[in-house]
């Protein structure tokens, strides 16, 4: 099992510092938040992309995923624009050597059937470019489709190996879904698992792993049962909670906590 963290936890941190932080804390990968606020996003050019690749290679750290903000189930909008956004994220991931692109559902208040069909159509349309680029598009359990049961409705309609899921353990829990149910739905499609911890359903301020209420031991144990080569990615939402503790000092204890859960599972 390999460990990564999201740059959502270190907002705006320059790439050399991100790569050095991951290496120094014993993390094998990083999920890069692809947003104009950050150093890496679809708007950067070929030279900047190459420099990012070189920096991570120098530190022996993988770029696990490009975490984009395309909302594939969004109602209305410009279909062509969304398709272009998806294609640009896929090309960015390809150029960086990342395995995955993260997308959100974003179905809003639509009827589920309509949102599912829209998302499936858009994901299926993007799948050939993803296959050609050796990148998988992963739908995160989030917002309108926060449970595994929600996500699988879309993925079942797509039916393409280059389109899968990210299991965000907080959102499935907030959706009232038991880990064993989430895992059963998502396992055949799973790219990786996003771990995190919070104090309660009412207070989602990020905490150190193991300091909150999320059923991390059960989630990690279920995922570990799928095989030894998966990724656990800590998504610490510092960007949205400025008063939360800084992530860098939590990274080594967080990794050690996950290692202990895995050892207990075996």
How are the elements arranged and paired?
Layout: E1 2-6, H1 15-25, E2 29-33, H2 46-59, E3 62-71, H3 79-96, E4 100-104, H4 112-133, E5 136-140, H5 148-158, E6 163-168, H6 169-174, H7 179-186, E7 190-195, H8 216-224, E8 231-234, H9 251-265
Parallel strand pairs: 1-2, 1-8, 2-3, 3-4, 4-5, 5-6, 6-7, 7-8
Helix pairs in contact: 1-2, 3-4, 4-5, 5-7, 8-9
The geometry reads as globular
- The number of distinct helices, counting runs of at least 4 residues, comes to 9
Strands of the widest sheet, in order across it, are 1-2-3-4-5-6-7-8
Let me know the largest β-sheet: 8 strands, parallel, barrel
Structural class: alpha/beta
Write a compact overview of the structure shown.
With 266 residues, the chain is α/β, with parallel strands linked by helices. It has helices spanning 15-25, 46-59, 79-96, 112-133, 148-158, 169-174, 179-186, 216-224, 251-265; strands at residues 2-6, 29-33, 62-71, 100-104, 136-140, 163-168, 190-195, 231-234. Helix content is 43%, strand content 17%.
Description:
The chain is of the alpha/beta class and 266 residues long. 43% of the residues lie in helices and 17% in strands. It has nine helices and eight strands. It has helices at 15-25, 46-59, 79-96, 112-133, 148-158, 169-174, 179-186, 216-224, 251-265, and strands spanning 2-6, 29-33, 62-71, 100-104, 136-140, 163-168, 190-195, 231-234. The protein has an eight-stranded parallel β-barrel, surrounded by eight helices. It is globular. The chain starts with a strand and ends with a helix. The relative contact order is 0.14.
